[in-house]
């Protein structure tokens, strides 16, 4: 029996006090006298427990997932709001809550950090939070927003030296990054229906165009939501790589890029596992996230992605790698923590 490790979970069910504090913080940007203190936010352990037990943990147990890599709510990162200090305070609060959840449920949740990114601000400003989250909170990965402007794409591509301080830190700690945007503030792009999938596809293409992994051969990115359009258009991307005189995609990208299984129907998963080598696929559901309903065609939740993996043509061995083996390899600090627990 494999462990089932869901590498993509967010704290979408945090107690309302968190959102209320954030709204005050946003109001305080223009009205400094209204700016709340960090100490104004009070959430008890019981409230945290309840918010998890009735939601993520319940679904994990019903669906047969053991461990979730748990990061702050992605759409609430909203790096475009305010300046660096606003983002830094917000990231620190959100990361601390995920850490507390991981302490309350040590067998089920392992934290992944959001970064205090802000558009146009040097990325070295994120390093102290990475240090804190890895060293003090036991975070095993980070979420990196390739577009902190929220849909306006004002930052350089991921292959640009702008991002290198974060990559150097990732290499030092041997932690991967999930490439994950936040809410869209561009009226043309729906947050989870367009902006997320655009960003997945865009990030993949940026890596294809560049030679980032020659500079950082051990850097690892997870492109979520099944890789956006990448697997579906694999032929196009292979052809583009040839035209750009790049090596094959396997050689150029697949030692460093992984896709998750947040694809909410069987034909999508079937295509993913057919096109992408199983060594590059990590189990994930992003549950209680973008799509929260039951699929009337199947009678099961759209985000119950384990069912699709089970129903696919993957062998038992391949499923082991998707559920557990690949996650241990891509998140070595997760592997260490699991081994320390005897898992
Ligand atoms: Zn997500």
Characterization of this structure:
By secondary structure, this protein is an alpha/beta fold. It has a single domain, classed as TIM Barrel (Alpha-Beta Barrel), CATH 3.20.20. It has 14 helices and nine strands. Strands 4-5-6-7-8-9 form a six-stranded parallel β-sheet. The chain has a three-stranded parallel β-sheet with strand order 1-2-3. Helix 5 (127-135) links the parallel strand 4 and strand 5 (142-144). Helix 2 (45-53) crosses helix 4, helix 5 packs parallel to helix 6 (164-173) and helix 13 crosses helix 14. The longest helix is centred in the first third of the chain and has 21 residues, at 84-104. The mean pLDDT is 98. The site of zinc ion has 6 residues, from strand 1. It holds the Pfam family Amidohydro_2. Residues 5-332 form the Amidohydrolase-related domain. Keywords: Lyase. This is 4-oxalomesaconate hydratase. One of its GO terms (molecular function) is carboxy-lyase activity.
Major beta sheet, strand line-up: 4-5-6-7-8-9
Order of helices and strands: EHHHEHEEHEHEHHEHHEHEHHH
Helix content: 40-55%
Shape: globular
Strand coverage percent: 5-15%
What's the topology here?
Elements: E1 5-11, H1 16-30, H2 45-53, H3 56-63, E2 67-72, H4 84-104, E3 109-111, E4 113-114, H5 127-135, E5 142-144, H6 164-173, E6 177-179, H7 191-209, H8 212-215, E7 221-223, H9 234-243, H10 249-252, E8 257-260, H11 266-275, E9 281-282, H12 306-311, H13 316-330, H14 332-340
Parallel strand pairs: 1-2, 2-3, 4-5, 5-6, 6-7, 7-8, 8-9
Zinc ion is lined by residues 8, 10, 74, 180, 224, 286.
């Amino acid at each position: 029996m494999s462990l089932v490790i869901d590498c993509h979970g967010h704290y979408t069910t945090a107690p309302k006090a968190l959102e209320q504090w954030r709204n005050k913080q946003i109001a305080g940007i223009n009205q400094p006298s209204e700016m709340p203190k960090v100490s104004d936010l009070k959430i008890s352990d019981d409230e945290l427990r309840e918010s998890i037990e009735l939601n993520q943990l319940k679904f994990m147990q019903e669906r047969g997932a053991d461990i979730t890599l748990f990061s702050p709510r992605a759409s609430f990162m909203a790096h475009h709001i305010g300046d660096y200090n606003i983002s830094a305070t917000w990231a620190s609060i959100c990361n601390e809550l995920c850490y507390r959840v991981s302490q309350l449920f040590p067998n089920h949740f392992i934290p992944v950090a959001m970064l205090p990114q802000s558009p146009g601000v040097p990325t070295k400003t994120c390093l102290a939070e990475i240090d804190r989250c890895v060293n003090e909170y036991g975070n095993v990965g980070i979420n990196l927003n390739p577009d902190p402007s929220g849909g306006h794409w004002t930052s350089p591509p991921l292959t640009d030296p702008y991002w290198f301080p974060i990559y150097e830190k990732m290499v030092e700690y041997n932690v991967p990054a999930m490439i994950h945007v936040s809410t869209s503030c561009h009226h043309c792009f729906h947050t989870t229906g367009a902006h997320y999938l655009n960003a997945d596809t865009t990030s993949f293409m940026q890596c294809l165009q560049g030679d980032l992994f020659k500079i950082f051969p051990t850097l690892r990115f997870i492109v979520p939501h099944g890789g956006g359009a990448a697997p579906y258009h694999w032929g196009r991307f292979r052809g583009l790589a040839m035209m750009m005189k790049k090596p094959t995609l396997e050689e150029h990208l697949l030692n460093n890029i992984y896709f998750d299984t947040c694809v909410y129907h069987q034909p999508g998963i079937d295509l993913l596992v057919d096109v992408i080598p199983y060594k590059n696929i990590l189990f994930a559901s992003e549950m209680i996230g973008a799509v929260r309903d039951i699929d009337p065609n199947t009678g099961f939740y759209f985000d119950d992605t384990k069912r699709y993996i089970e129903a696919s043509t993957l062998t038992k061995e391949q499923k082991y790698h998707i559920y557990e083996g690949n996650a241990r390899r891509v998140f070595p600090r997760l592997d260490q923590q699991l081994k320390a627990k005897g898992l």
